[in-house]
Protein 1
Amino acid sequence: MNVLSIANLSIDYVGAESVFHAVKDVSFNIAPGEFFGLAGESGCGKSTIAFAISRLHRPPALIRTGSKILVDGRDVLELDDAELRSFRWREVAMVFQSAMNSLNPVLTIEAQFYDVLNTHLGLSRVQAKARAAELLRLVDISPDRLSAYPHQCSGGMRQRIVIAICLALNPKLLIMDEPTTALDVVVQREILQRIDTLRKELGFSVLFITHDLGLMVQVSDRIGIMLEGELVEVNDAQTIYRAPSHDYTKRLWASMPRLHGTPIRQEPAS
Amino acid sequence: MTAPAPVLALDNVSKVFGSKDKPVYAARSVSLALYPGRTLALVGESGSGKTTAARLIMREYRPDQGQLLFRGAPVGDGSLKAYRAAVQMVFQDPFSALNPAHTVRYHLERPLRLHQPDLGATARQAAVAELLERVKLDPALIAAKYPHELSGGQRQRISIARALAVNPAVIVADEPTSMLDVSVRLGILNLLNDMKSQLGLALLYITHDIATARYVAEDIMVMYAGQIVEWGDMDSVLGNPQHPYTRLLLSAVPDPDRRFGEGRPDDELSRIDVIRRQTALPQPEVRTIAANHFIRPMPA
Ligand SMILES: Nc1ncnc2c1ncn2[C@@H]1O[C@H](COP(=O)(O)OP(=O)(O)OP(=O)(O)O)[C@@H](O)[C@H]1O
Ligand SMILES: Nc1ncnc2c1ncn2[C@@H]1O[C@H](COP(=O)(O)OP(=O)(O)OP(=O)(O)O)[C@@H](O)[C@H]1O
Ligand SMILES: [Mg+2]
Ligand SMILES: [Mg+2]
């Protein structure tokens, strides 16, 4: 059974004067242990989908009837409040696009770990601190930082701390919306390699949203490409890279800056 | 040939955070210069002090040592207003850079009001529309929206448009396009490139995207643990990297031809820990590699 199964998902932003169709009839699945990449132009609806899967969408976002989101076979759109509380973090954990400012500014890093670990696992302060130190090590941050406040950490450190909190409850699906924009490529590589190893060990699946196509091909098993609310192409990562079928995907590759040779392979004007 | 004068410079600036027994050296004798019509890319480890350098330039932090120079003169409290108008910043996090209570139009009109007070309402409206078009956003769709109604990449573009609104002499852009797809990213960078050559804008471009930096910047600096470890001409640094950390950084740039976990790991990647430990030590010596290419070699 798929960990995530999305069928005919349509999401609108309903305004006073107009309705904006942000997501149009999108369907795709993620298998257990699979690393699925989602890419597409800015504003095409990627974060909107991520929010809907975690049931974190709020008005004016409206999920159209007929849309289905199943996590581990359960209909996410039908969950009541009590079910939602255990669903979040345990079933699906999400690293937001704004992860670097999603930490609570007035709490130390330690207190934020305690919140999650105490609420969901009933850990004591001492237990939570030990577990938090372990989780921080997974993302290459020294446990010294537990006593720091978010503003004392750099943007990339804050992103890593949020990733560590998301791993705390061994979720079945980890959603990462641009989780590494503030990380240098060395740390980014270490973190993603670690998540790649962890998902193989622990068996969780990953939905990875990024604009870094090179990186996406390096880590993903399959990739979906979105354009203006529609999912225009889904395939295994190598096919998306070496033999894309949609024009938009081809254009994406053509405009990707390279480190060596001609900086950009420009498409001949069509 | 006389060298052109920098419009803005940090001269041997240091900044330490934390306590006496646990100091964090966010900037260690950092010197950099920005020239009209040129872009300097600042890359480096996460937490190495790039944003700190930007905040020192923006005068959000006072240096513990060294000074900030604008057109050759130290920036003092008296000259701050003119300085603030001339030097604009695009912040790293677009989600906290915009005020949630105000529309996009308000965010762009405010700087226009301050810096072009004579502009009439209609002209101001037109200027807002033009700014939005410059960053590839549709004014009819976007101007009336609030920040929470925008995607991450759309917010980044509003921050850039706001910086452009006052025709600054210098823009300090901290990861300005990290949330944009490659095509929009190139559009924005081309726009900055045009402003650079036409208006003589000086740009400090802080980024983790070295491939894109190569496309827009003439010069590059590589930072680690508060120090600039290698700097100079972009082609020379990328083509002939001499500092182990620079080599490590270049070997980790995402490459779609090499899947994770496949093939032989690079030399540098297998030596990460050693390189990190060594590079974190103070590296006072400067060695010249080429006319415009320098490193601070790791202590042996
Ligand atoms: N609350 C809202 N009200 C109205 N429109 C919205 C709202 N939130 C998002 N939108 C619009 O919906 C579209 C999709 O937004 P979304 O955040 O899902 O894009 P995205 O693919 O994540 O983009 P990015 O890569 O830039 O983060 C955008 O055009 C955005 O302007
Ligand atoms: N206000 C502060 N108080 C204490 N420490 C700080 C403060 N601001 C930054 N630091 C520390 O200074 C160092 C440099 O931080 P800075 O934000 O400049 O890094 P950066 O290079 O921009 O990193 P990133 O790429 O992750 O954004 C970090 O160790 C950070 O924790
Ligand atoms: Mg988004
Ligand atoms: Mg930073």
Note: Residues A 13, 20, 22, 42-48, 60, 97; B 148-154, 179 surround adenosine-5'-triphosphate (ligand 1) (CB under 6 Å).
Protein 2
Amino acid sequence: MAEIKALKLAFDVPGANFDRAGEASAKLKRTLQQVGVPAEVIRRVAIGSYEGEINLIIHAGGGQLQAEIYPDHTRVIVSDQGPGIPDVKEAMQEGYSTASEEARAMGFGAGMGLPNMYNCADAFEIQSKVGWGTIITMDFKHQDR
Amino acid sequence: MTLLEVVQALDAEILYGQTLLDRELETCCGSDLMSDVLAFTKRNTLLCTGMTNIQVVRTADMTDLGGLVIVRGKRPPASFLEEAEAEKLPVLATKHTMFETCGILYACGLKGCSVKE
Ligand SMILES: Nc1ncnc2c1ncn2[C@@H]1O[C@H](COP(=O)(O)OP(=O)(O)O)[C@@H](O)[C@H]1O
Ligand SMILES: [Mg+2]
């Protein structure tokens, strides 16, 4: 079988650095624009990726944002070796948040991030274990909704 | 409603976007909560906010907002405007409060970003 080559991007997201929050997602967005992905799809990828990036900063002490751009879809992987999530089902509820005062002061921490990522992506998977970290995988078809 | 009409209705100052005043805005949202902006706005929305941190510009970029109105006479820092310029994101400043700003724009016919489609 012929191997389909993906365009791969990888970013280190430093923890507790609000000034730079969103830089990786912005670069991903520019790349998708250059590749010619539909704008509506790019918007959903950018929102999902940015929510993940913010979570790395406010909940995990930093982590990695990776993207694989295929001809027909884009995969975004948000991973960290942070504290992990004790109850993923609870964390997925709209409004559930353990965000700090500092994060709230910046306009985040409304407990909408994970549900929003789930809604934006065409496929969403989360693996998390306390003391091990969290990996979120989101797939986005290059097709308007 | 065009950006120019927004400027006139709010007696706003144009902090960036002098050449983008013919931009047509479809919907409007008033919020200081970037989480809500990320979850509930549509493309080309005008955001009225009292927040002036850099995350407002990043959020606007990710969600393809059409422009920003900073309410209550607040001033964003220079870095805010530099990044807005890089992203061609118009930024207006008005002396009106959030409530007044939203009321004026609503009366002008601008629609909200309803949760239901
Ligand atoms: N990468 C992560 N590491 C540890 N905990 C996380 C991570 N992402 C999310 N969480 C937990 O899940 C909760 C809900 O996340 P989210 O829906 O993004 O809301 P918010 O970020 O506004 O708190 C967070 O408050 C946090 O407790
Ligand atoms: Mg979040």
Note: The helical segments of chain B are 3-10, 34-40, 54-62, 78-86, 98-107.
Protein 3
Amino acid sequence: MSVIIYAESENGKIKKSAFELASYGYEIASEMNVPLIAVTFNQDEVESLGTYGIEKVIKFKGPSISNFTALQYAENIALIAKENEAKIIILSSSANAKYLAPKLSITLSAGYASNVIALPEKLQPLTVKRTCFTNKAFNFCSLSNEVNIVGLSNNSYEIKENPKSIEIIEKDSSSTETTLKVEKLEKSSGKVTIADADVVVSGGRGLKGPENWHLIEDLADTLGGATACSKPVSDMGWRPHSEHVGQTGKPVASNLYIAIGVSGAIQHLAGVNSSKVKVVINNDPEAPFFKAADYGIVGDAFEVIPKLTKKLKEFKSK
Amino acid sequence: MKILVCISNVPDTTSKINFVDENTLFDTNGVQFIINPNDEFGLTRAIWMKQQQSAEVTVVTVGDNSCESTLRKCLAIGADNAIRIDLKPTDGFQVAKQLARICQETIYDIIIAGRESIDYNGAMVPGMLAALLDYNFVTNCVALDVEGENAQASREIDGGIEIISCQLPLIIGAQKGLVEEKDLIIPNMRGIMQARQKPLKVIEPTEDEIKSSILKFEKPIPKGEVKLVPADDIDQLIDLLHNEANVI
Ligand SMILES: Cc1cc2nc3c(=O)[nH]c(=O)nc-3n(C[C@H](O)[C@H](O)[C@H](O)COP(=O)(O)OP(=O)(O)OC[C@H]3O[C@@H](n4cnc5c(N)ncnc54)[C@H](O)[C@@H]3O)c2cc1C
């Protein structure tokens, strides 16, 4: 028996979410008294996983996995799960992990719970707490299957060190017959994504127009964060759809979420509720967002943002 | 070309979320139900293919008869016919299984489902359906073009876009971007009248296998008061974020 995590990497580096999965998996594997195994794809450096409790790493290599494909990756993870009699498989909440999870679940006849935010309440049967109604509520979900998949929400479990010496096994990926081909990957390099960012700076209609977005970008850059926006801002084409956060956009689970010129409509709040600390800057003291925020400034965005950015730069250089 | 659009009947986005029966059931009292927004983007794209490529559009839902007004709305928007599988579902796997059966009886070239529903947010039905049918699958789909037997679809990934080509049949997980907000079709009087005449077939569910069940719900703990900082005292905000909140 074992517990397995799918450790994602990017540009040759293991992602922070993978260390969260390892730390989370370690607690479960210790309780079950079984080894904790990580599966990686096209990743050379894997030793760092040992710091967070991984005992064994299966490294997949080969031409068929040079780019992510849900089918191929799911089949490889399934193979490892079967070989090691995995009881629980832990995935992140990245777009890729959510893409392959349903396939993995069918291949292994496994149960699957996404958006899990805490350690299991119980292991027999596996009972997990997850968000539902787009962060407006939680539910406790029970999975009584031989094998179960847990999709852990990003930034919901703290990284913990549990150093282990690791065994590394290299494997060639088999390739599956499919007509599905990735023709092109368009990725903005070097930019933090909303999914991975510790800080997200978001602008709403109060910013008046796309020409003012340098204010949001400068602030986000100063904090090493990602930029986001409200729905009408993306609908009007001020910002790309990929930045739209909320109930019908992306969820945000950052440590810090700064909302500027965003009124705080229920659909917007739903998507950003999981962020740990929320700061609101709005010139209307009655804006509903103030009720959902931790810190607030009632003031004009065009005056407050430049001052805030300047002061933060000074703070950072100290 | 035959298109199947899978519809989830969900509480309106402004609904108050409450639970009854010792927090084991969603309280539908006073709640308005709508087409799941991600499904509606998908349905609109399907209607375009009906208009431009003479596709036939079927909508399907797994649900009890309270879902019928949502299905009628889909017909008013332009779908040709509707199917309701008469089962109040317990989990996403069960829904995928029921849908798979429909797709084995009638072969659809394209199956569209929302990438996730806004109530249970499982994000599993389209992917499980694809795996059960062994069909090609693209989720977080923000563009779709179909020509003959071939499709090109774009998938939104973290920080970019992936352009995928494949053969039909194809299942997509729809979201905004596939069509824009302004493209959503508001049914007109004629559409609503026609919808009443269009076929809505109710079929019995088959097996009843599930892989997960909800034991109970919980609401978030109400938030404490916001701490307001004067606009001319940015230093105080930075101090709070650094020393109190520990986020910078
Ligand atoms: C089905 C459905 C789904 C939806 N999904 C989403 C979603 O996922 N995400 C989302 O964001 N919305 C969503 N919405 C829309 C939502 O209801 C709101 O309309 C939207 O969030 C408002 O965006 P906003 O806050 O940018 O704009 P507004 O509501 O117009 O707010 C602008 C704010 O800026 C402030 N402001 C103006 N000038 C200044 C200034 N100089 N300085 C500081 N502040 C200023 C104003 O006081 C106001 O509070 C959805 C709606 C529906 C019906």
Note: The two ends of chain A are 50 Å apart (CA to CA).
Protein 4
Amino acid sequence: MAESRIFDLAVSPHIGSSQTTKRVMWDVVIALIPALIAAFWFFGPRALLLAGVSVGAAVLTEWLCLKFMKRPVNFAFDGSAVVTGLLLAYNVPAGVPWWLPVLGSAFAIAVAKQAFGGLGHNIVNPALLGRAFLMASFPVLMTAGWIAPMQWKDGERIDVQACGVPTAQLSESGELDALSGATPLNVLKQTFTWEGDPERSEEVRSMLFSRESLKNLFMGRIGGCIGETSVIMLLLGAIYLILRGVLELRLPLSYLGSVALFGWLFGGPGWLDGNALFHLLAGGVILGGFFMVTDMVTTPVTKKGRIIFGIGAGLLTMVIRRWGGYPEGCSYSILLMNLATPLIDRYTRPQSFGEVSSNG
Amino acid sequence: MSKVKSFAGGAHPPGNKGLSSGAAVVRLPAPEVVTVPLCQHLGAPSKPVVKPGDEVKRGSVIGEQNGFISLPTHSPVNGKVLRVENAPMPHMRSGPAVVIKTESEDGGEVYEPISDWKNADISLIINRIKEAGVCGMGGASFPTYVKLSPPEGVKIDTLIINGVECEPYLTADHRLMLERADDLITGMNILARVLGVSDPCIGIEVNKPDAIKLLEKKGARVVRLKVQYPQGAEKQLIDAAAGREVPAGGLPLNVGVVVQNAGTCVAVADAVCKGMPCIRRITTVSGLGVTSPGNFDVCVGTPVSTLIEAAGGYRGDVQRLISGGPMMGMAMFTDAAPATKGMSGILALTPDEVRDVAEGPCIRCGKCVDVCPLRLCASVIATASEYGKWEDAEKAGALNCMACGTCSYVCPAGRYLVHHIKRAQNEIRAIIRAREA
Ligand code: SF4
Ligand code: SF4
């Protein structure tokens, strides 16, 4: 009879899919790289510098927090801090001083994430709370630091404008080429408030919604935050995530669909005459839709909940864009919905298998 | 060709069936000593009726039925009882067993065949299935005769034979369907007659086209099923094959359905037509940790180490030994444990095959919710369990969980969701018992 052997016990299941938290996080990092390349192309090396210091600050802060709380420090390298650092940098204009994203990232990690218990326990998206903190503390820097994208001339790249154009000036001068200095959403917002000059508003709007303008939005040849402008590069990243099985499409699709719908409903001066495509392409909707609305930790776990989240965030985005105090509402809308997530989860818990018929 | 059916949810773990699906069943002779468990079926263990020194015959009863949900146990060999003792078991730490020294393996005391089962008294057939000790051969080992005696007023109109075998690695049912197709169909027809069902069917995943073809050629009605784990779970199978949702906390008979495993059908045919009690079964021995994976027809009571030897012995670094499949099977601490009626496979897995990760924090990705075939929020139940909030766990549906493991399988954080949920189930049941007492 065979000699018997002893083995370790363990609970079932004994096998697992190859997807791990670390792999998910690094996949998101990889998916964010194309947008960084676009940022480098349009905003110059400064974009890389800001992203770099932001990521560095995020990882360092995470490491310090873990060390301080005597938790395993290798959590700092699971990729989640890198994602937060990158997203924070993507949400500031390219013209801000380098210490601004550093501060934002440190706040994001220390206050929005670690203070709540670290990965998986935070209520709101750390990068977005970091950005909100910067908006509240340094409003001037955050809204005047726009850099006009590089432009082409005779096959050469030229830097047309290196510094920010205060938006107030823009509205008064009303020069067309000044559009490139501020963000398209800034301009749109102002057309809603120019009093007594409806014709001029109409003219500027039709320019914003022109083919040329939409094409620039798609490519990213516009003013805006570092990582949000190039729709095509962001989509490239999103496709990568879908192929890797990381992206669940309910969140992005319901969000984008909701932005398009409400953008058309009330995104223009009157009812039912907004430009849905413009609202999708402008500002942070694509970045938000594929990389922030989809943040797993701060969004619902139920399928129905994800759809409600997306629709709610889209609605809020458009309400802020149209009537709020800021030209862009993407990040605030997501933050607000993050707060509603526990509630959404509670009320959308699916009826478990066989529960319906058990009453019958 | 009929449409390929399925259920909602689930996952697609790699099947790894190619390791053993081509290997024809090899009949292993009884080993020198068999350790026959008295607790092979679900319910009360059989009561031993032999003592050390007794001579036993192949097929003679060594443990008698002990209650309604219980079964008798038979000796698989002619020989002499050495001991009646507690021995290590594949599905629990240890349990009562009769240790028998084998002398020979032929003849013995089998029952009188009921060759005219088409006209025989139904109670006679049910009784035979009971006295032959037939239980579910798919893993749960529920006494088969109980399922054939529905309570008064319950009308069964559908019989589904489970030939799904959705657990990765396992190929025993696949080989059984190929090599014992006639007995399988006979067993199915016997069960159909007992239940009064006119048109029984066999559910098979489309990754076994040869079995589908063969059984259809022999006139059986086959329902093609998508390859998707856990397609073979009773409720999912009924949903896919009959389009009926078994109520939460209910049984298949609540929707007029009885499900029996393919191996059970063969055991029924053996018991009824040949008078042979349930003393052997076909089981898969596989995993990268054995030299030549295969399928074996073994006596119950054969030590697992003997099975491993039959498969060429261990190979390389074996990290885990499992009774059953890798999704729901139990890790065994020793290969001295014996084969049972419900043992669908033995897997020796290497570190490359086993996922052995430290449990990380939940990142709330929702994957566990997406895949749960019973539409439970595994993460919510598990978290409640970790914090000892049993009531919350119960409200979230902990008791409905069938421990299929799909949620744990997909969890990127490597959480032991099933473990936490099972723990909650135990606590909740204890609370309920205490409340009722
Ligand atoms: S799959 Fe794991 S990490 Fe994702 S929600 Fe479920 S428990 Fe959390
Ligand atoms: S183990 Fe339970 S909770 Fe997890 S997928 Fe299976 S039934 Fe759902």
Note: Chain A touches chain B through 47 residues (CB under 8 Å).
